[in-house]
Design goal:
Helix content of chain B: 55-70%
Structural class of chain B: mainly alpha
Number of domains of chain A: 3
Shape of chain A: globular
Number of domains of chain B: 2
Number of strands of chain A: 1
Family (chain B): Belongs to the COA8 family.
CATH superfamily of the largest domain in chain A: UbiA prenyltransferase
Distance between the termini of chain B: 55 Å
Oligomer: heterodimer
InterPro entries (chain B): COA8
Largest sheet of chain A: none
Membrane topology (chain B): Peripheral membrane protein
Largest sheet of chain B: 2 strands, antiparallel
Strand order of the largest sheet of chain B: 1-2
Protein name (chain B): COA8 family protein CG14806, mitochondrial
Order of helices and strands of chain A: HHHHEHHHHHHHHHHHHHHHH
Number of helices of chain B: 6
Radius of gyration of chain B: 24 Å
CATH topology of the largest domain in chain A: Tetracycline Repressor, domain 2
Structural class of chain A: mainly alpha
Distance between the termini of chain A: 98 Å
Subcellular location (chain B): Mitochondrion inner membrane
Order of helices and strands of chain B: HHHEEHHH
């Protein structure tokens, strides 16, 4: 009986006339004021009529799920199928794509360090970094649940949707951080573990709260991004040299064009949700800083041969990449619109892996014994590595000639 | 009397009704569930103003005092959150309308992003203190809820073990 009344009421709302003669029936439903019920009913009818636009995350979930999509309005929280979808939920809690990028930068740090490449340590370092990053992201989602609900970019996160409970997120974080840090401490070295622990604290306890208080959060957040390559480097070489700082500096500077471009189109959401970002508080500064740091990236890449991290080829090969990056940042600075910001953001996702790849194939010292030989013999540009060699790019004639003089 | 009137009125929609009747779970789920009858907490759709999803907390028959304390605190925090964000978001949309009304030149329907950004900055700055206070409270409440939740889970685990 009450169903009929409800349906009639929602049709009325849809057609624009609020039929208050149904008030008596609504009261039977519950003790809440009529408006609450009307809002709920209109929301649920709206949802029934217009299924929510599938965002990237929901379509990905639909692809993975073998069961039909649950279209109920009220669902169990936490969801009943946690055990069946552990992998999916872990990926969501860990912000999997972001964690993968972090692990990649850590791997690059490991591969670039002037020490022998050990596959076991490399694997443990990578997995350990991934686990610590997952823990950090999980704690971040725990703290930011009501804010994530406000922004379209983040409103489909597991805690916002009620698929998991806050205690799940913290349990996951505890398990992954303990496992990850132990792996780093026992499987790699204490320095890497200390860097990991420091980064975890920096991200969860300093950066996350600061996002709501001051734009300084962006500079601190860039440090968070610059530490994983240091972890990889320390994992391989056991210490941090000038080379580690070069890679770190590149990653620190990269965060600015990347994040400033991303946040440019989210200004309304950031403003309403209460996040203090340059894009909202000082848009001119936002674009200036992005441009400035693409310049710093170019300068650092040009200086890296002189800092004994890579050979001269890297400076030449990375120049077109960096110049294009600077060009896009300049366009963003001048045009200051959504098109140029999106282009800059998208290219930043290509620029970083490409840059790391170039650094890797052009690295100067393959083992620490190379550095010793360099000091003894005449300065050369490239030496044959003892353990492994990547010859993807053809080596120049000058270098080949020099090599032939070594191997008489 | 009333029932027959209702049936008559809905005669043209009879097919529609039978459709809904056959898929009763969908129709039932429009109404918020009864805390005494559900088997687990239920989460609803996002509120159109506050964007937060309401949770109906299950009230089991053999609820311990700790569980009741936890449930009451969760309800309280949920209401507090709903009130804050409803008021905050309403203020945002109202002030945005006022800004648009005062700054929209004749003939245009939208302002550019750069023109709007003046409003976004002003709104963010105006609410800095409100957010600071909310944040502090939210972190405190969230962690209290976490500790309680872990206590409840812990006790439940032990009770099962004792059996």
């Amino acid at each position: 009986m009450s169903y009929l009344k409800v349906l009639h009421c929602t049709l009325c709302i849809k057609q624009g006339a609020l039929n208050l003669s149904n008030k008596s029936v609504l009261l039977k439903i519950g003790n809440k004021p009529a408006l609450h019920h009307l809002i709920k009913i209109s929301t649920s009818c709206h949802l029934n009529a217009n299924p929510p636009l599938t965002s990237q995350s929901t379509t990905a979930k639909a692809k993975n799920k073998k069961v039909p999509e649950d279209t109920r309005i009220w669902k169990e929280t936490p969801t009943q199928d946690v055990k069946n979808n552990l992998v999916q939920y872990s990926m969501m809690l860990s912000k999997f794509r972001l964690t993968s990028l972090v692990v990649m930068t850590s791997m690059a740090g490991y591969a670039l360090a002037p020490a022998p490449f050990d596959l076991t340590t490399f694997a443990i370092c990578s997995v350990g970094t991934g686990l610590v990053s997952s823990a950090a992201n999980s704690i971040n989602q725990f703290h930011e649940m009501p804010f994530d609900a406000q922004m379209s970019r983040t409103k489909n996160r597991v805690l916002v949707k009620g698929l998991l409970e806050p205690s799940h997120a913290i349990g996951f974080a505890a398990a992954t951080s303990v496992t990850g840090l132990s792996m780093l401490y026992f499987g790699v070295n204490p320095l890497t573990a200390a860097l990991g622990a420091g980064n975890l604290i920096l991200y969860t306890s300093i950066y996350t709260p600061l996002k709501r208080l001051s734009i300084v959060n962006t500079w601190l957040g860039s440090i968070v991004g610059a530490i994983p390559p240091l972890m990889g480097w320390a994992g391989c070489a056991g210490e941090l040299g000038a080379g580690a700082l070069v890679l770190s500096a590149l990653l620190y500077s990269w965060q600015f064009p990347h994040f400033n471009a991303l946040s440019w189109n989210l200004r309304p959401d950031y403003s309403r949700a209460g996040y203090r970002m340059m894009a909202v508080t000082d848009p001119a500064l936002c674009r200036r800083v992005a441009l400035r740091h693409t310049g710093i990236i170019t300068a650092t890449c040009l200086a890296s041969p002189y800092l004994e991290v890579t050979n001269m080829w890297f400076a030449i090969e990375s120049l077109p990449l960096n110049i294009y990056f600077m060009y896009l940042a300049w366009q963003f600075y001048k045009k200051s619109d959504s098109g140029s910001s999106r282009k800059l953001f998208r290219f930043s996702l290509i620029h970083l892996p490409a840059l790391m790849f170039l650094m890797l194939v052009n690295k100067k010292y393959w083992t620490s014994s190379d550095t010793q030989e360099q000091k003894d013999s005449k300065p050369q540009d490239i030496k044959h590595p003892e353990t492994k060699r990547i010859t993807v790019l053809p080596r120049g004639p000058v270098v080949a000639a020099q090599d032939s003089t070594i191997h008489k | 009397m009333l029932s027959s009137r209702v049936t008559l009125a809905s005669r043209p929609n009879l097919l529609l009704i039978s459709k809904y009747a056959s898929s009763t779970p969908n129709v039932k789920s429009i109404q918020p569930p009864n805390p005494n009858k559900i088997t687990s907490d239920m989460v609803g759709p996002p509120d159109p103003v506050s964007n937060l999803r309401r949770i109906i907390f299950r009230k089991p028959a053999n609820e311990t005092s700790l569980e009741r304390k936890y449930r009451k605190l969760r309800t309280e925090v949920q209401e507090w959150n709903q009130i804050f964000w409803t008021q905050h978001n309403s203020r945002f949309f109202k002030e945005r309308e006022a800004y648009l009304k005062s700054n929209l030149p004749e003939g245009k329907t939208n302002l550019t992003a750069d023109e709007m950004s003046v409003f976004y900055k002003a709104f963010l700055d105006k609410n800095w203190k409100a957010h600071l206070d909310y944040n502090r409270e939210w972190y405190r409440k969230n962690i209290t809820l976490l500790i309680l939740s872990l206590q409840v889970k812990f006790r439940k685990l032990f009770r099962i073990k004792d059996k």
